Automatic annotation (TrEMBL):
Coiled coil: 163-200
Keyword annotations from UniProtKB, A to Z: ATP-binding, Coiled coil, DNA damage, DNA repair, Nucleotide-binding
Domain of life: Bacteria
Family recorded in the similarity comment: Belongs to the RecN family.
Role according to the record: May be involved in recombinational repair of damaged DNA.
Span of domain RecF/RecN/SMC N-terminal: 3-508
A cellular component term, taken from the record's GO annotations: bacterial nucleoid
Protein name: DNA repair protein RecN
GO biological process, one term: DNA repair
Length: 550
């Protein structure tokens, strides 16, 4: 329930503080006084779009706070907890709009997105406007109203999910079916190419080993010849490196005085001699085991030739063959097995069955609720001076199912006895549409779980005894919760639990909108003005009678 509304620097409002309570509250005033400004501000606090033009001239920003009691609103508290926000007895929705058009939204002081503000706002308030009869000409609105009346929103959402899942899979099936021949050709090519690489059986690191071995075998003669020459230089007889080092050591040892430097030289020469001896031994073993193997060279070169040939065939480097094989394998897996089309068709059939089962449950709920809703609306129409009007909700099976279910929902009306029910736009006049819209709004509001209902001049085009009926209906709604109504009808204002007067003032430089609650004589005077434009003794007496009767 809306407890408090604070509006600052919004259009013609300088500063406005409003307290609301349980029951029906009406906002009245002269035409053009700004009655709808309050609801416009409330709409912004609930997540409506805004712009810098809504900021009062000369001000930096507009600021709107709306405080709600959610102590009995389990859904709102659950939503706040899911968003990790405070979910105590009250919640404050705040919206600011700067003169440059920038907007910020807050819930309990925590910055939120406009979508979050709107999502919570929709749970707290249901706003009905005088323009809703225009949307009443659309079949989408008819379906939404019926689903809400049947409390089938959850079933409707489930049907949409099933339909989307089914259609997504079906589109995949159609793509695969339409390209089945091309897919099979690609599958055959991939399998052939992968088989070719499988036969090649290239092992990790094999290419590098083969290339190294090929270089060694191809240069075996030069390697062996060079090895013999090197062995002769190291330890091959007179004048070799080993003999030279031996003489050098003898010279150092024969010196009469051994300085530290000479001792270090002797140590290094001895170490070099040991290294040369080891190098000679290693080289000897290499020569003893080294083989000239033309047959192995032929084998290696043939293996390398096969690898290079496949790499050239696919226009890649030999080292990229393993990566290419992996890519082909992945693509083949994505294409799927030859029976993938049949498997996908089976999955589509199962998904369709799941959709039709959910849609069937929704259809039963709609059928059960359609007559009840029509009867309730017809009862209200009789009270709204349309006793001969008859509303029907036609459920027509669709040739092809849609995300909304298996049937089309349309509200039909016959305004005179003996006439067949036809589409609203073809039968009802503008005034009749307004009353039909009001009747539907009143009926659906009675089953609404939203604690606060707002009606913005839905009684346009209605007057006299019918207006009194509208006032009774809105008061009845207020007995069960909270109703806020902008009205121009004295009959509606008199029936309200409380009444607020919207006035426009001017100081010669700027205009201001003010709003205050009316009590006793002030309220009688305002109702009298609404009756005849001027508060006369007769209109005042009539107004007091209406208020007393209410």
């Amino acid at each position: 329930m809306l407890l408090h509304l604070s509006i600052s620097q919004f259009t013609l409002v300088d500063q406005l503080e409003l307290e609301f309570g349980h029951g029906t509250s009406t906002l009245t005033g002269e035409t053009g006084a700004g009655k709808s400004i309050t609801l416009d501000a409330l709409g912004l606090a609930l997540g409506d779009r805004g712009n810098g033009e809504l900021v009062r001239a000369g001000a930096k920003r507009a600021d709107i706070h709306a405080t709600f009691d959610i102590s009995n609103h389990e859904e709102a508290r659950t939503w706040l907890e899911d968003q990790e926000m405070d979910a105590e007895r009250e919640v404050i929705l705040r919206r600011t709009i700067s003169a440059d058009g920038r907007s910020r939204a807050y819930i309990n002081g925590q910055p939120v997105t406009l979508m979050q503000l709107r999502t919570l706002g929709e749970q707290l308030i249901d706003i009905h406007s005088q323009h809703e009869h225009q949307s009443l000409l659309k079949k989408d609105t008819h379906r939404r109203l019926l689903d809400e009346y049947a409390h089938a929103e959850g079933h409707s959402a489930e049907v949409r999910i099933h339909y989307k899942t089914w259609q997504d899979q079906y589109r995949r099936y159609r793509r695969l079916a339409d390209s089945a021949e091309e897919t099979q050709a690609r599958r055959d090519l991939l399998e052939y190419q992968l088989e070719e690489l499988a036969q090649l059986d290239l092992k990790p690191g094999e290419l590098e080993e083969l290339e190294s071995e090929q270089r060694q075998l191809a240069n075996a003669g030069d390697i062996l010849n060079g090895s013999y020459q090197l062995a002769a230089m190291l330890n091959g007889g007179e004048g070799d490196i080993a003999e030279q080092l031996h003489r050098a050591l003898q010279l150092v040892s024969a010196m009469p005085e051994q300085s530290p430097a000479l001792a270090e030289v002797a140590q290094m020469l001895d170490s070099a001699r040991i290294q040369i001896d080891e190098a000679g031994s290693t080289l000897s073993r290499h020569i003893d085991t080294f083989e000239m193997n033309p047959e192995r060279l032929t084998e290696v070169e043939e293996r390398l030739s096969a690898i290079y040939s496949i790499a050239r065939k696919h226009r890649i480097q030999p080292a990229q063959l393993a990566e290419l094989q992996q890519q082909w394998q992945q693509e083949l897996e994505e294409i799927g097995a030859p029976d993938a089309l049949d498997k996908l068709a089976g999955e589509c059939e199962q998904l369709e069955q799941a959709f039709r089962a959910a849609a069937g449950k929704l259809s039963k709920l709609r059928i059960a609720a359609a007559k009840k809703l029509a009867d309730a609306v017809n009862s209200q129409l009789a009270d709204l001076a349309m006793p001969h009007a008859r509303v029907e909700l036609a459920l027509t099976a669709l040739e092809k199912p849609t995300a909304t279910g298996l049937e089309e929902v349309e509200i039909l009306i016959a305004t005179n006895p003996g006439q067949p029910a036809r589409a609203l736009g073809k039968i009802a006049s503008g005034g009749e549409l307004s009353r039909v819209s009001l009747a539907i709004q009143v009926v659906t509001a009675q089953t609404s779980r939203t604690p606060t209902l707002v009606f913005d001049e839905v009684d346009v085009g209605i007057g006299g005894a019918t207006g009194d009926v509208v006032g009774k209906l809105l008061r009845q709604l207020g007995e069960r919760g909270q109703v806020i109504c902008v009205t121009h009808l004295a009959q509606v204002a008199a029936r309200a639990h409380r009444q607020y007067l919207v006035e426009k003032h001017s100081d010669g430089e700027a205009a201001f909108v003010a709003l205050r609650e009316l009590k006793d004589a002030e309220r009688s005077a305002e109702v009298a003005r609404m009756l005849g434009g001027e508060a006369t003794a007769q209109s005042l007496a009539h107004a007091e009678e209406m208020l007393a009767r209410a």
